[in-house]
């Protein structure tokens, strides 16, 4: 590959494809002169959109891919029948060294399974996870994982997520010693399912910067740097938070537009400040989740993301490539292993779990 950053795009994924994707790429061209895009999609649909935006010919390639993975496809079905799909070809470009990162707005389950099968996992990682920066009022953000890749987990998996989250926070948030929390129904150490209780004991004994249990409403305050949970709970938390944020934005806009003359005038005066404040909770601003733990960079965008949201997902991919994220994650994991607080640490604890955990081991 050249010195350019090459990003492969699944042009058929998501509800707003390919229009929003092409618009986002056009915007990225205008702000970055060191990027080349390889788009995979139905040429008959995608090419006319590219022509409308007059992409520079030396900055993109379009590979015809007639098969598109739908949101209704089950992951296993998508893997079996999606050999020539735009999603799979975009991921294979990373595997083959033809791209530095892949971006897709498509089916999350299919994207994760396909990425795992094509790229494989980093050493020491048993289960890759979906992670992104969740917004907080201190503008620092919190690394959240898992956001939906692993619906059923055990305490070992959550410990792995914590380690990957620490590495991600060190690289992206530039935090030297990230503080870890576990998403739970209460902050008391006696609350929660067996999964959370076992994970608490493991992290408590790990020597890591463990803060304890965190309730959902406390995450946005930015009290912790890494929040770990299973994919089922993490996805519900994420979607509920995004829904609340969107509703908040709609209510404020509606109140201003439907108010009296004074309200509208005040809204006009405060428009820039309100807009800047709401950006913190705008799902499109924080769009772009990494499938962390894979031997390659794959970014999942919201399926319904706007052009602005997809732009931010592409920018996430670009930033992670520039930061050489996977090499740094691997280095961090090796350090944990050498210190004896790595992935084998969980197995050591499990051997004496009856004494340490005080809970029946599974």
How are the elements arranged and paired?
Elements (H helix, E strand, L loop, with lengths): L4 E6 L8 H13 L3 E7 L1 H11 L6 E5 L10 H7 L4 H10 L5 E4 L3 H12 L9 E6 L7 E4 L9 H19 L6 E4 L10 H12 L4 E5 L1 H4 L6 E3 L2 H27 L3 H18 L10 E4 L4 E4 L6 H16 L2 H15 L4 H8 L1 H4 L6
Parallel strand pairs: 1-2, 1-4, 2-3, 4-11, 6-9, 7-8, 7-9
Antiparallel strand pairs: 5-6, 5-10, 10-11
Helix pairs in contact: 1-2, 1-11, 3-5, 4-5, 6-7, 6-12, 9-10
Q: What would you say this structure looks like, in words?
A:
The protein is an alpha/beta fold and 362 residues long. 49% of the residues lie in helices and 14% in strands. It is built from 14 helices and 11 strands. It has helices at residues 19-31, 43-53, 75-81, 86-95, 108-119, 155-173, 194-205, 216-219, 231-257, 261-278, 307-322, 325-339, 344-351, 353-356, and strands at 5-10, 35-41, 60-64, 101-104, 129-134, 142-145, 180-183, 210-214, 226-228, 289-292, 297-300. It has an 11-stranded mixed β-sheet with strand order 3-2-1-4-11-10-5-6-9-7-8, with helices on both faces. It is globular and about 60 Å long. It starts with a strand and ends in a 6-residue tail after the last helix.
């Amino acid at each position: 590959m050249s010195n350019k950053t090459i990003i492969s795009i699944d042009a058929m994924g998501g509800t707003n494809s390919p229009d929003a994707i092409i618009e986002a790429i056009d915007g990225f061209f205008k702000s970055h002169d060191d990027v080349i895009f390889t788009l995979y999609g139905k040429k008959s649909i995608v090419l006319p959109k590219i022509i409308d935006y007059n992409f520079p010919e030396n900055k993109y390639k379009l590979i015809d891919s007639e098969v598109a993975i739908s949101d209704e496809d089950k992951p296993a079905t998508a893997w079996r029948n999606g050999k020539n799909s735009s999603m799979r070809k975009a991921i294979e470009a990373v595997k083959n060294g033809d791209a530095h990162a892949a971006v897709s707005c498509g089916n999350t389950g299919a994207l994760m399974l396909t990425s795992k099968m094509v790229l494989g996992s980093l050493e020491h990682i048993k289960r890759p996870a979906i992670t992104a920066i969740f917004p907080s009022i201190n503008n620092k953000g919190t690394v959240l994982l898992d956001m939906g890749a692993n619906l059923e987990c055990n305490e070992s998996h959550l410990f792995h997520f914590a380690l990957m989250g620490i590495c991600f926070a060190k690289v992206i948030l530039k935090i030297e010693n990230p503080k870890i929390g576990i998403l739970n129904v209460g902050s008391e150490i006696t609350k929660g399912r067996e999964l959370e209780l076992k994970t608490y004991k493991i992290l408590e004994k790990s020597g890591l910067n463990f803060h304890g249990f965190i309730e959902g409403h406390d995450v946005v305050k930015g009290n912790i740097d890494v929040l770990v949970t299973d994919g089922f709970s993490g996805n519900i938390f994420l979607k509920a938070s995004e829904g609340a944020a969107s509703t908040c934005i709609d209510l404020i806009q509606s109140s201003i537009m439907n108010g009296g003359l004074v309200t509208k005038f005040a809204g006009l005066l405060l428009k820039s400040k309100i807009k800047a404040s709401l950006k913190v909770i705008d799902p499109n601003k924080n769009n772009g989740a990494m499938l962390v733990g894979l031997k390659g960079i794959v970014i999942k965008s919201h399926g319904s993301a706007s052009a602005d949201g997809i732009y931010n997902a592409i920018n996430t991919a670009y930033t992670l490539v520039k930061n050489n994220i996977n090499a740094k994650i691997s280095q961090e994991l090796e350090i944990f292993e050498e210190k004896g607080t790595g992935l084998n640490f969980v197995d050591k604890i499990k051997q004496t779990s009856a004494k340490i955990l005080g809970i029946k081991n599974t």
